[in-house]
Amino acid sequence: MRKVIKIDTADLNSRKLTIKLVENKKIGIYRLGQGKFKVYEMTCPHMGGDLCNGMINKSTIQCGWHGYMFSLINGNFIKNPNIRGTEFVRVASKYFDPSDEKTKNLELKTIDHRIEKNNLILEI
Amino acid sequence: MKFEFTQKYTFPVTVESAVVTYLDCEHYIFLHRSHEIAYKIISINEEKCISEIIYKSGIFKWAQKTTTEYINKNEFKQYDVKIKGFGPAFLANFIDVKTSLKYYKNNKNQLVGNIDDNFNEIYIKHDNNIVISEIKYSLNLPIFLYPFKNYLRKKLKTMKEKKDLEDLFMIRRRMKLFGDDNINKESEYWKPYFKKSYFLLFKDRFIENFFNN
User: Fold this and answer.
1) Which of A13, B24, B157, B211 has the fewest CB atoms within 10 Å around its CB?
2) By the 8 A CB rule, do B89 and B53 touch?
3) Taking CA atoms, what residue in B is nearest to A53?
4) Which positions 93-122 of A are in contact with B (Cβ < 8 Å)?
5) What CA–CA distance (Å, rounded) separates B18 from A34?
6) pLDDT of B78-101, one tens digit each?
Protein backbone atom coordinates (compact mmCIF):
# COMPACT_ATOMS: atom_id res chain seq x y z
CA MET A 1 0.00 0.00 0.00
CA ARG A 2 1.36 3.40 -0.97
CA LYS A 3 1.89 5.96 1.72
CA VAL A 4 1.41 9.70 1.29
CA ILE A 5 4.29 11.81 2.59
CA LYS A 6 4.17 15.58 3.05
CA ILE A 7 7.30 17.68 3.07
CA ASP A 8 7.18 21.41 3.77
CA THR A 9 8.75 23.15 0.75
CA ALA A 10 10.05 25.90 3.03
CA ASP A 11 12.60 23.35 4.25
CA LEU A 12 13.95 22.81 0.73
CA ASN A 13 16.66 25.14 -0.50
CA SER A 14 16.84 26.27 -4.07
CA ARG A 15 19.46 24.52 -6.27
CA LYS A 16 20.39 22.25 -3.42
CA LEU A 17 19.81 18.57 -2.92
CA THR A 18 17.98 17.75 0.28
CA ILE A 19 18.22 14.15 1.36
CA LYS A 20 15.43 12.58 3.39
CA LEU A 21 14.81 9.13 4.73
CA VAL A 22 11.21 8.27 3.86
CA GLU A 23 9.75 4.85 4.64
CA ASN A 24 13.26 3.38 4.86
CA LYS A 25 14.05 4.77 1.43
CA LYS A 26 16.63 7.48 0.86
CA ILE A 27 15.34 10.16 -1.48
CA GLY A 28 16.90 13.32 -2.81
CA ILE A 29 14.82 16.43 -3.48
CA TYR A 30 16.29 19.03 -5.80
CA ARG A 31 14.55 22.39 -5.94
CA LEU A 32 14.77 23.78 -9.46
CA GLY A 33 13.19 27.11 -8.54
CA GLN A 34 9.76 28.62 -9.23
CA GLY A 35 7.99 25.87 -7.33
CA LYS A 36 9.51 23.10 -9.41
CA PHE A 37 11.17 20.08 -7.87
CA LYS A 38 12.84 16.86 -8.87
CA VAL A 39 12.65 13.90 -6.53
CA TYR A 40 15.12 11.06 -7.01
CA GLU A 41 15.83 7.69 -5.51
CA MET A 42 19.29 7.86 -4.01
CA THR A 43 20.45 4.61 -5.58
CA CYS A 44 22.87 4.83 -8.48
CA PRO A 45 21.33 3.37 -11.67
CA HIS A 46 24.75 2.10 -12.73
CA MET A 47 25.49 -0.51 -10.04
CA GLY A 48 23.34 0.44 -7.06
CA GLY A 49 25.75 2.61 -5.08
CA ASP A 50 24.35 4.84 -2.36
CA LEU A 51 24.21 8.32 -3.87
CA CYS A 52 23.94 9.83 -0.40
CA ASN A 53 27.67 9.13 -0.15
CA GLY A 54 28.24 10.74 -3.51
CA MET A 55 29.82 14.04 -4.38
CA ILE A 56 27.37 16.85 -5.06
CA ASN A 57 28.50 19.81 -7.09
CA LYS A 58 25.87 22.47 -7.87
CA SER A 59 23.61 20.62 -10.30
CA THR A 60 25.39 17.27 -10.55
CA ILE A 61 25.86 14.24 -8.38
CA GLN A 62 28.68 11.74 -8.69
CA CYS A 63 28.35 8.25 -7.26
CA GLY A 64 31.00 7.39 -4.69
CA TRP A 65 31.44 3.86 -6.01
CA HIS A 66 32.42 4.17 -9.69
CA GLY A 67 32.22 7.94 -10.05
CA TYR A 68 29.40 8.01 -12.63
CA MET A 69 27.97 11.51 -12.87
CA PHE A 70 24.31 12.52 -13.25
CA SER A 71 22.44 15.78 -13.69
CA LEU A 72 20.21 16.80 -10.79
CA ILE A 73 18.22 19.00 -13.17
CA ASN A 74 16.87 16.16 -15.29
CA GLY A 75 18.43 12.97 -13.86
CA ASN A 76 20.37 12.26 -17.07
CA PHE A 77 23.68 10.47 -17.16
CA ILE A 78 26.47 12.97 -17.83
CA LYS A 79 29.71 11.05 -17.90
CA ASN A 80 31.84 8.16 -16.80
CA PRO A 81 35.05 9.85 -15.66
CA ASN A 82 36.98 6.60 -15.95
CA ILE A 83 36.94 6.75 -19.74
CA ARG A 84 39.33 9.70 -19.81
CA GLY A 85 42.85 8.44 -20.14
CA THR A 86 41.87 4.83 -20.75
CA GLU A 87 40.22 5.12 -24.18
CA PHE A 88 43.12 3.35 -25.85
CA VAL A 89 42.66 0.18 -23.78
CA ARG A 90 38.86 0.18 -24.09
CA VAL A 91 38.88 -1.76 -27.30
CA ALA A 92 36.09 -3.91 -28.66
CA SER A 93 36.17 -7.57 -27.75
CA LYS A 94 33.72 -10.44 -27.53
CA TYR A 95 32.09 -9.08 -24.37
CA PHE A 96 32.92 -5.39 -24.49
CA ASP A 97 31.92 -2.71 -26.94
CA PRO A 98 33.22 0.81 -26.30
CA SER A 99 30.67 2.33 -28.67
CA ASP A 100 27.97 1.10 -26.30
CA GLU A 101 29.37 3.33 -23.58
CA LYS A 102 28.35 6.44 -25.45
CA THR A 103 24.75 5.38 -25.67
CA LYS A 104 24.50 4.23 -22.10
CA ASN A 105 20.89 4.38 -21.11
CA LEU A 106 21.24 5.37 -17.51
CA GLU A 107 19.26 7.93 -15.60
CA LEU A 108 18.36 8.64 -12.02
CA LYS A 109 15.06 7.09 -11.01
CA THR A 110 12.50 9.77 -10.28
CA ILE A 111 9.68 9.64 -7.76
CA ASP A 112 6.27 11.08 -8.68
CA HIS A 113 5.23 14.09 -6.65
CA ARG A 114 2.90 17.06 -6.62
CA ILE A 115 2.71 20.38 -4.81
CA GLU A 116 -0.21 21.23 -2.54
CA LYS A 117 -0.25 24.37 -0.42
CA ASN A 118 3.50 24.71 0.08
CA ASN A 119 3.86 20.99 0.63
CA LEU A 120 5.61 18.52 -1.58
CA ILE A 121 3.46 15.40 -1.67
CA LEU A 122 5.01 12.05 -2.41
CA GLU A 123 3.32 8.72 -2.74
CA ILE A 124 5.70 5.96 -1.82
CA MET B 1 67.12 -9.43 2.10
CA LYS B 2 63.98 -11.46 1.59
CA PHE B 3 60.93 -10.96 3.76
CA GLU B 4 57.81 -13.01 3.08
CA PHE B 5 54.47 -13.21 4.78
CA THR B 6 50.91 -14.28 4.10
CA GLN B 7 47.64 -12.58 4.88
CA LYS B 8 44.58 -14.78 4.93
CA TYR B 9 41.02 -13.99 5.91
CA THR B 10 37.43 -14.75 5.09
CA PHE B 11 35.76 -12.91 2.23
CA PRO B 12 32.21 -14.21 2.55
CA VAL B 13 30.91 -13.85 -0.99
CA THR B 14 31.24 -16.15 -4.00
CA VAL B 15 34.67 -16.53 -5.65
CA GLU B 16 33.18 -15.04 -8.85
CA SER B 17 32.01 -11.99 -6.96
CA ALA B 18 35.39 -11.47 -5.29
CA VAL B 19 37.19 -11.80 -8.63
CA VAL B 20 34.86 -9.48 -10.54
CA THR B 21 35.27 -6.85 -7.82
CA TYR B 22 39.03 -7.02 -8.25
CA LEU B 23 38.68 -6.68 -12.03
CA ASP B 24 36.21 -3.81 -11.76
CA CYS B 25 38.93 -1.16 -11.89
CA GLU B 26 36.52 1.75 -12.38
CA HIS B 27 35.82 1.77 -8.67
CA TYR B 28 39.42 1.98 -7.49
CA ILE B 29 39.73 5.72 -7.21
CA PHE B 30 36.17 6.43 -6.12
CA LEU B 31 35.40 3.80 -3.52
CA HIS B 32 38.98 3.76 -2.25
CA ARG B 33 39.39 7.50 -2.58
CA SER B 34 40.77 8.03 0.92
CA HIS B 35 44.16 7.10 -0.56
CA GLU B 36 43.89 6.66 -4.32
CA ILE B 37 43.24 9.77 -6.36
CA ALA B 38 43.89 8.73 -9.96
CA TYR B 39 44.06 5.50 -11.94
CA LYS B 40 45.49 5.03 -15.37
CA ILE B 41 45.93 1.90 -17.46
CA ILE B 42 49.18 2.12 -19.36
CA SER B 43 48.88 -1.08 -21.32
CA ILE B 44 46.85 -4.25 -21.28
CA ASN B 45 46.78 -7.57 -23.09
CA GLU B 46 45.09 -10.89 -22.39
CA GLU B 47 47.29 -11.75 -19.41
CA LYS B 48 48.90 -8.58 -18.11
CA CYS B 49 47.96 -5.05 -17.28
CA ILE B 50 50.34 -2.23 -16.45
CA SER B 51 48.64 0.48 -14.46
CA GLU B 52 49.51 3.58 -12.56
CA ILE B 53 47.77 4.70 -9.39
CA ILE B 54 48.35 8.09 -7.82
CA TYR B 55 48.20 7.98 -4.03
CA LYS B 56 47.88 10.81 -1.57
CA SER B 57 48.47 10.72 2.14
CA GLY B 58 48.70 14.03 3.99
CA ILE B 59 51.21 16.22 2.17
CA PHE B 60 52.68 13.27 0.31
CA LYS B 61 51.71 12.28 -3.19
CA TRP B 62 53.21 9.54 -5.29
CA ALA B 63 52.58 7.44 -8.37
CA GLN B 64 52.83 3.68 -8.32
CA LYS B 65 53.24 1.73 -11.52
CA THR B 66 52.42 -1.96 -11.21
CA THR B 67 52.13 -4.98 -13.45
CA THR B 68 49.12 -7.16 -12.69
CA GLU B 69 48.83 -10.61 -14.16
CA TYR B 70 45.60 -12.62 -14.27
CA ILE B 71 47.04 -16.09 -13.73
CA ASN B 72 44.20 -18.50 -13.22
CA LYS B 73 40.50 -17.90 -12.96
CA ASN B 74 40.85 -16.86 -9.31
CA GLU B 75 44.47 -15.80 -9.00
CA PHE B 76 46.46 -12.62 -9.58
CA LYS B 77 50.08 -11.64 -9.39
CA GLN B 78 51.48 -8.16 -8.99
CA TYR B 79 55.11 -7.17 -9.53
CA ASP B 80 57.43 -4.59 -11.08
CA VAL B 81 56.22 -1.99 -8.62
CA LYS B 82 57.84 1.36 -9.41
CA ILE B 83 57.26 4.48 -7.36
CA LYS B 84 57.89 8.05 -8.35
CA GLY B 85 57.11 11.14 -6.41
CA PHE B 86 57.62 12.81 -3.14
CA GLY B 87 57.31 11.26 0.29
CA PRO B 88 58.34 8.20 2.24
CA ALA B 89 56.76 5.93 -0.36
CA PHE B 90 59.73 6.73 -2.56
CA LEU B 91 61.62 4.26 -0.37
CA ALA B 92 59.57 1.58 -2.09
CA ASN B 93 61.90 2.03 -5.06
CA PHE B 94 64.50 0.25 -3.00
CA ILE B 95 62.10 -2.60 -2.31
CA ASP B 96 61.17 -5.27 -4.77
CA VAL B 97 57.53 -6.17 -3.99
CA LYS B 98 55.71 -9.14 -5.41
CA THR B 99 52.27 -10.32 -4.39
CA SER B 100 50.20 -13.32 -5.26
CA LEU B 101 46.48 -13.14 -4.49
CA LYS B 102 44.03 -16.00 -4.60
CA TYR B 103 40.33 -16.34 -3.78
CA TYR B 104 39.17 -19.88 -3.07
CA LYS B 105 36.54 -21.89 -1.25
CA ASN B 106 37.91 -23.28 1.98
CA ASN B 107 38.42 -27.06 2.05
CA LYS B 108 40.66 -27.60 5.06
CA ASN B 109 40.81 -27.08 8.81
CA GLN B 110 42.64 -23.82 9.34
CA LEU B 111 43.01 -20.58 11.27
CA VAL B 112 42.10 -17.49 9.28
CA GLY B 113 41.19 -13.89 10.02
CA ASN B 114 37.51 -13.09 10.19
CA ILE B 115 36.66 -10.03 8.10
CA ASP B 116 33.41 -9.62 10.04
CA ASP B 117 35.19 -9.54 13.38
CA ASN B 118 37.98 -7.04 12.97
CA PHE B 119 40.18 -9.72 11.33
CA ASN B 120 40.51 -11.68 14.57
CA GLU B 121 41.46 -15.28 13.89
CA ILE B 122 38.84 -18.01 13.79
CA TYR B 123 39.18 -21.72 13.30
CA ILE B 124 37.26 -23.00 10.31
CA LYS B 125 36.64 -26.61 9.48
CA HIS B 126 37.22 -28.27 6.13
CA ASP B 127 33.50 -28.50 5.45
CA ASN B 128 33.00 -24.77 5.88
CA ASN B 129 33.23 -23.61 2.26
CA ILE B 130 33.52 -19.92 3.02
CA VAL B 131 35.64 -18.01 0.50
CA ILE B 132 39.16 -17.11 1.63
CA SER B 133 41.25 -14.25 0.37
CA GLU B 134 44.88 -15.28 0.58
CA ILE B 135 47.72 -13.02 -0.41
CA LYS B 136 51.40 -13.84 -0.27
CA TYR B 137 53.79 -10.93 -0.10
CA SER B 138 57.41 -11.28 -1.07
CA LEU B 139 59.58 -8.26 -0.31
CA ASN B 140 63.21 -7.90 -1.19
CA LEU B 141 64.51 -5.25 1.18
CA PRO B 142 67.83 -3.42 1.24
CA ILE B 143 69.66 -3.90 4.50
CA PHE B 144 68.90 -0.38 5.75
CA LEU B 145 65.16 -1.01 5.46
CA TYR B 146 65.15 -4.50 6.91
CA PRO B 147 64.65 -3.26 10.52
CA PHE B 148 61.38 -1.69 9.32
CA LYS B 149 60.03 -4.95 7.94
CA ASN B 150 57.32 -5.31 10.59
CA TYR B 151 56.16 -1.76 10.05
CA LEU B 152 55.92 -2.42 6.31
CA ARG B 153 54.03 -5.66 6.92
CA LYS B 154 51.52 -3.86 9.11
CA LYS B 155 51.06 -1.05 6.56
CA LEU B 156 50.49 -3.43 3.65
CA LYS B 157 48.09 -5.60 5.63
CA THR B 158 46.07 -2.65 6.91
CA MET B 159 45.78 -1.17 3.42
CA LYS B 160 44.41 -4.42 2.01
CA GLU B 161 42.00 -4.90 4.90
CA LYS B 162 40.59 -1.41 4.47
CA LYS B 163 40.04 -1.87 0.73
CA ASP B 164 38.45 -5.29 1.19
CA LEU B 165 36.08 -3.96 3.85
CA GLU B 166 34.98 -1.21 1.47
CA ASP B 167 34.51 -3.75 -1.33
CA LEU B 168 32.60 -6.18 0.88
CA PHE B 169 30.27 -3.42 1.99
CA MET B 170 29.39 -2.67 -1.63
CA ILE B 171 28.99 -6.33 -2.61
CA ARG B 172 26.60 -6.82 0.31
CA ARG B 173 24.72 -3.68 -0.65
CA ARG B 174 24.24 -5.08 -4.16
CA MET B 175 23.07 -8.40 -2.73
CA LYS B 176 20.50 -6.57 -0.62
CA LEU B 177 19.26 -4.66 -3.65
CA PHE B 178 19.49 -7.29 -6.37
CA GLY B 179 19.61 -10.69 -4.70
CA ASP B 180 22.47 -13.08 -3.96
CA ASP B 181 25.70 -13.34 -5.93
CA ASN B 182 25.40 -17.02 -6.80
CA ILE B 183 26.61 -17.66 -10.30
CA ASN B 184 23.71 -17.02 -12.66
CA LYS B 185 24.02 -14.97 -15.82
CA GLU B 186 20.38 -13.94 -15.68
CA SER B 187 20.31 -12.71 -12.09
CA GLU B 188 19.89 -9.03 -11.38
CA TYR B 189 23.18 -9.16 -9.46
CA TRP B 190 25.18 -10.40 -12.46
CA LYS B 191 23.34 -8.87 -15.42
CA PRO B 192 25.10 -5.47 -15.42
CA TYR B 193 28.53 -7.07 -15.70
CA PHE B 194 27.45 -8.70 -18.96
CA LYS B 195 26.39 -5.49 -20.60
CA LYS B 196 28.68 -4.79 -23.52
CA SER B 197 29.18 -1.31 -22.12
CA TYR B 198 30.59 -2.61 -18.83
CA PHE B 199 34.35 -2.36 -18.69
CA LEU B 200 36.36 -4.85 -16.64
CA LEU B 201 40.03 -5.74 -16.73
CA PHE B 202 40.43 -9.07 -18.55
CA LYS B 203 36.65 -9.14 -19.08
CA ASP B 204 36.61 -11.80 -21.81
CA ARG B 205 38.74 -14.16 -19.77
CA PHE B 206 36.64 -13.63 -16.66
CA ILE B 207 33.42 -14.47 -18.49
CA GLU B 208 34.94 -17.44 -20.28
CA ASN B 209 36.37 -18.71 -17.00
CA PHE B 210 33.23 -18.57 -14.95
CA PHE B 211 30.22 -18.33 -17.26
CA ASN B 212 31.13 -20.23 -20.39
CA ASN B 213 28.54 -22.99 -20.08
Assistant:
1) A13
2) no
3) B31
4) 93-97, 100-101, 103-104
5) 48
6) 999 888 876 777 777 788 889 999
